[in-house]
Amino acid sequence: MTMLTPDQIHAYRRDGYLHLRGLFSPEEAAAYRAEVHAIAEGQGPTDATWESVKDGATRLIHCHDVQFRSAAFTRLLLDPRVTGTAQSIIGPNVQLHHTKMFVKPPEQGSPFPMHQDHPYFPHRDHSLIAMIFHFDDAPEERGCLRVYPGSHALGPLPAVGADHHLAKDRFPLAGATPLPAKAGDMIVFSYLLAHGSGLNRSDEARTTLLVQLRDPADVQLNDRHASRGQGMMLAGVDPTATPFRFAWDAAA
Ligand SMILES: O=C(O)CCC(=O)C(=O)O
């Protein structure tokens, strides 16, 4: 099933991203928002602020593999609006790489330095896409996503520091295009797109879910970033699947 129009697919290929407005209704977004905040409250304090922007003053609440915490996210992963969008870009077969939720708390929500996702989990064919689901409004002052349109065409770029960000003089955060979003919007982008986001200076949280997907025929070039549920098929089939073996046979 294909969901994007030819014009949308063309825009994605040209710009490296696509902003899908109102993919979910305000009611759906509010329900997902409540699930994210319930996980955040249940797990206690966390902080995923990146090393290169850590100054002790900001915080980033996060949790990975959220479909293992709430069935709402398992349903989201299989929602035809999600799988259809992914199939339009990747092809008929869509495999889960990982999920993670982020809450940028009010007035102190950490920025993300500009980066490509590629250095974290490089793949041979660069089939990886990220989807950021917005569960509340993300205007500029709430630290919305910022991108360098077309930067995916540059291919893998040199990454700097422990958190693999891009050189700040070449890709300053302030020079990137802000993509303010509304609750229910989704932004899909290539893992080669230069992206980041600003500080949340507002008095409301910014609440998102990030899902990374790939073509199962692609090959990951390192063994970092293993996640629970990685390899689950969300659409189509895995043409590379090998004959089934019991775990105890494989170990023998
Ligand atoms: O949520 C954001 O603003 C960006 C997240 C991101 O780029 C990442 O986790 O790699």
Could you explain how this protein is built, in words?
The protein is of the alpha+beta class and 252 residues long. Helices cover 21% and strands 22% of the residues. It has a single domain (6-251), classed as Jelly Rolls. It has 5 helices and 11 strands. The mean pLDDT is 96. The structure holds 2-oxoglutaric acid (AKG). GO terms for molecular function: 2-oxoglutarate-dependent dioxygenase activity; iron ion binding.
How would the blueprint of this fold be written?
Blueprint lengths: L5 H10 L1 E4 L5 H18 L17 E4 L6 H8 L1 H11 L3 E11 L7 E4 L13 E6 L10 E3 L29 E3 L6 E5 L4 E3 L8 E9 L18 E3 L11 H5 L1
Antiparallel strand pairs: 1-8, 2-3, 3-10, 3-11, 4-9, 5-8, 5-10, 6-7, 6-9
Bound molecules: 2-oxoglutaric acid.
Protein name: Ectoine hydroxylase-related dioxygenase, phytanoyl-CoA dioxygenase (PhyH) family
GO molecular function, one term: iron ion binding
Keywords: Dioxygenase, Oxidoreductase
Q: Structural class, from helix and strand content? A: alpha+beta
Q: What is the beta-strand fraction?
A: 15-25%
Order of helices and strands: HEHEHHEEEEEEEEEH
Could you give the distance between the termini? 41 Å
What value does the average pLDDT take? 96
Per CATH, which architecture?
A: Sandwich
Molecular shape: globular
CATH superfamily: q2cbj1_9rhob like domain
Question: Major sheet: size, sense and barrel closure?
Answer: 7 strands, antiparallel
Overall helicity:
10-25%
- Number of β-strand runs: 11
GO molecular function, one term: 2-oxoglutarate-dependent dioxygenase activity
InterPro entries: Phytyl_CoA_dOase-like
Protein name: Ectoine hydroxylase-related dioxygenase, phytanoyl-CoA dioxygenase (PhyH) family
Keywords: Dioxygenase, Oxidoreductase
